[in-house]
User: What shape does this take?
Amino acid sequence: MTQNIETPLHRIAHSRAGDKGNRVNLSLMPYDPALYPLLAEQVTEEKVLALFRHRGATACKRYDLPLLNAFNFVIDEVLEGGVNGSLNLDGHGKSHSFRLLAMTIEVPREKLNRP
Amino acid sequence: MIPLGLKMLKGVPSVSDLFLVGNGAGFSGDRVDAPIPVVRSLVKRGLPAAMFFECLGERTVALAQLERRRDPEAGYEPMLERLLEPILVDCARAGIPILGNFGAANPAAAARAIARLAKKLGMPELRIGLVTGDDVSDSVNLNKLAVHEADAGLDMSSWKLVSANAYIGAAPLAEALAAGAQIVVAGRTSDPALAIAPLMHHLGWAEDDWQALAVGAAAGHLLECGSQVTGGVFWDPGFKDIPDPANIGFPIAEVGRDLSLLITKPEGTGGIVDQRTVKEQLLYELHDPSTYITPDVILDITGAHLTPGGQDRVAVHGLQGRQRPDLLKVTACYEGSWLGEGEISVAGPNALARARATADVLLQRVKQRGLARRARADLIGVASVHDSDDGTLWRGYTGPEPQDIRIRLAVEATTRDDADQASREALALLCCGTAGTSGARWRVTPRILTRSFLVPRDMVPTETRVLPAREWN
Assistant: This one.
């Protein structure tokens, strides 16, 4: 019987944030391509949007790039005005990749031990 | 220029089939010694090559325009001479042209500064190309154009225009190279155009060869942020380690006549190029991966994939190009409101309670005095960047007690004086604050607001001038 372990994305994937106006994009790439379907199933647009609701984010769109073993999340209205309008120290939102990477997902134990 | 025969002697059989593009800066504020190893590597390899510098963020040109208002000979990249002095002679000798948007708000003054530098370095004949036309603040009536994107709360009627610049493409830069320019200075260009131009010029790409231009745009996109494709913004100790992060090598793209694309970096430098770094940068600031819009081509990376090409070498395949857009993006910058910031620290027992109380008092003081249109407080040490204006994260924090917290107040104010008064509320806490409150800092910054428009290409004519250094006065 497979045992699932609750794991922060940071342990199995990497991410980078970029901005344009009041929008952020977050890439997400599992280190192990075998985990791609698991991320596709569990890291949904709704769950990612929920991470940024407190900042007024209104929408999240996920683009799947299986050939690159990558996802691209685009989140609208998340920068409280963007680099020009925000009062936040991180007006660019470049730190948000690590808010995504703090999200936990359920990973079968045997898949966690893969290189 | 290294004679072709010499290159052949070095055992490089397909000299003319490969062109190298090196990057020396990914933004205004990048490491000023980064270009040196890149140029050294390009010279050593002896292949046809170019260097480019990307120094212009969305607002940088507006801040530069404010500098120019203060001093008519200012308003270009402040680190220009520092970036170029160590490499200019080597590039000229090796026939490696340099391109940059380091002209910012005053490309002509940048050309004159480069001319002074060239003469100082004993190169009065260095051919300096100047590309202008991106500044449309006087030539295009923005009020008649449809708005593309705008910062919230921007009321055009009440804000003063600081700058309006079109993102111009590669063609005028390539024109300067064709006219023999050894260094090309521009203001606002698309970032990838700085890489596309030397490729167009050297490999003879047509302006409608979308497949070739897509490869150039991808090369430019991957290189435009400098070290971000070679380990910068990537390293995460224990998870994504990189060698020698204090000396990350800036990137080099190898582009083939057969439209191959490979990303690498100079030997003997820090950082890393692998599939992880290339993927992160390929998707950086990208929205719909099928539609990355540049003035020269629309790039589609949905079919892209990567293969390893040796140590610090990654090849990029499957790039697709579509016809360039008819319209160019213009970003207009306006004088905005004022940002006032004040900070102060607490540490030791009961720090969290003292910090929360301090934040609340700062917000109350600003409200009481009517100083701000908008205000927020952050508890640095609890949540410095992921929080919201209303402090959802620090107000709801239930984790372990932090031992050291810096409280930050930030306000948006209508006048400089209001912003200053608000930020000084942090200072006043030196006497009025909680027990053990100290370390106040406060500052005021003018804010720039932006709005972008789409304009027909024919409304943005460009001009290219190429003259030897001795003739730039």
